[in-house]
Structure formats: C-alpha cells, structure tokens
Amino acid sequence: MKVTGMLANKLFLAFAVTMCSTLATANCSDAEYKVFQEYDRFLDANPSISDDQLRSAFAKKKGMKPSALKDLYVRCLWRWQEGAKATQETTWEEADGGQGTAKRIAGNDSIGCKSKNYYSKLVEYAAVKDNEAFKKGLMTGMASGQCTSFKRGEPVFVTDTSIFSGLIQVRRKGGNVEYWTSLEWVK
User: Fold this and answer.
1) Within 1-89, where are the H helices?
2) Can you list the pairs that 27-32 forms with residues at least 24 positions away whose Cβ atoms lie under 8 Å?
3) Tens digits of per-residue pLDDT, 149-187?
4) pTM listed for this prediction
5) CA 81, 109, 182, 126 torsion: positive or negative?
6) Closest Cα to residue 111, out of 92, 93, 126, 96?
7) Separation between Cα atoms, residue 106 and residue 31, nearest integer Å
8) 3-state secondary structure of 111
9) Which helix (H) or strand (E) holds 37?
10) Pairing state of beta strands 147-150 and 178-182?
11) Tens digit of pLDDT for each residue in 49-67?
C-alpha cells in the first residue's frame, strides 16, 4: 500500500486519538459531526494541497479559526471511530469455529508493525504530537514492509499480548506475518 501525505495525516490523527485517553470523553455534536464529514470530504477531494492550506481555506469558508476546526476534527474523529466500532459488533464466531480466538480490527486506518520497538517508536512520536516524525516513520515502515495498515472489520488472530504496554500482536486471517498494534484496535 502506498502511503501518501494525506493518508499519513489521517493515520496520525487516528493513531493520536486512540493513544490519548483524555480524548475518550471528547464531545462532538451532530452539527459538528456534519462539519467534520464535509471537511473530511474536502480533504479527500484535494490530496495535492497541504493540510494547513486546506484547513485554513475550509475554516474561512465556515467562519471558523483553523485551530477550532482542527479541534473539532480531532473530537469528531473520536466519534467517527466509536461509531465504526459499534457497527462492527457482529457475531462472526463461525470464522474460528466458535473458539473465540478470531477478532476484528475495530478502527479505521489502524496500523501495525512487525517489530514491537518500531511500533512503540511511532506511538512515542504520536504521544508528543510530532506529526513529521510520525509520517516519516510510518512511510518508511510501510515502504519497507515493516508496517501495514488494517481495514476496519478485517479478521485477525491474536498471537501475543503485552498487556502492560497496551499492545497486542495479531496476524491476518490466512496470513503468517504478525504485527504489533494497539490493544484498543482489536475487538
């Protein structure tokens, strides 16, 4: 999968939201969520323009400050991820014969890395909000095959856990390569 700057930014935001437990209580009203959806479509429609330029243009169009739009986007991204999790609550025990070992990726734009240390380094970049370091690390990891992205609802099997670090190792259904990811992204 080719990682573009826009995808890396979305992955960074999704990653940062998941890693920051203080955002768990963030609120996003229905009106704000509509703005979020419109802004997300605007971002997708203009992949060759920088996020800062797009944020400024869209914020001006909506009569907002760019910083307020960024805050709204992060809060509503959390709501979007929670909604995605809720829609994935399905019964698919037949995938593993009812044994309960099969899981699904719960969030959009979830990532995993073969090395726990590499994944932890990306977590560190996200925690300190170093978007550039995160994007470079993610792009390098994706290009080298060290990291991968998972689709929401993708079936995975748990192969190892590191409970105290909040990490879990999974492999794709039918695959034999294992990746470390956040425990919160596997349900």
Assistant:
1) 5-19, 30-45, 51-62, 66-87
2) 27/75, 28/72, 28/75, 28/76, 28/78, 28/79, 32/72, 32/75, 32/76
3) 888 888 999 888 876 778 889 999 888 999 999 888 888
4) 0.52
5) negative
6) 126
7) 25
8) strand
9) helix 30-45
10) unpaired
11) 877 888 899 999 999 998 8
Scan for tokens 């992949």, then name that residue: 47
- Per the DSSP assignment, residues forming a β-bridge with 102 are 157
Q: Are 146 and 114 in contact (CB under 8 A)?
A: yes
User: What stretches of 17-164 adopt beta strand conformation (E)?
Assistant: 102-104, 110-113, 147-150, 155-162
Strand locations in the chain, DSSP E? 102-104, 110-113, 147-150, 155-162, 167-172, 178-182
Query: Could you give the C-alpha distances from 119 to 82, 95, 182, in angstroms and in order?
Result: 23, 28, 9
Question: Contact 107/152 with Cβ under 8 angstroms?
Answer: yes
- For the record, the structure tokens of 130 come out as 């170093």
Q: Are 169 and 158 in contact (CB under 8 A)?
A: yes
Phi, psi at 37, each rounded to 5°: -65, -40
Question: What residue type is 170 in one-letter code?
Answer: V
Beta bridge partners of 172: 156
Strand 147-150 versus strand 110-113 pairing type: antiparallel
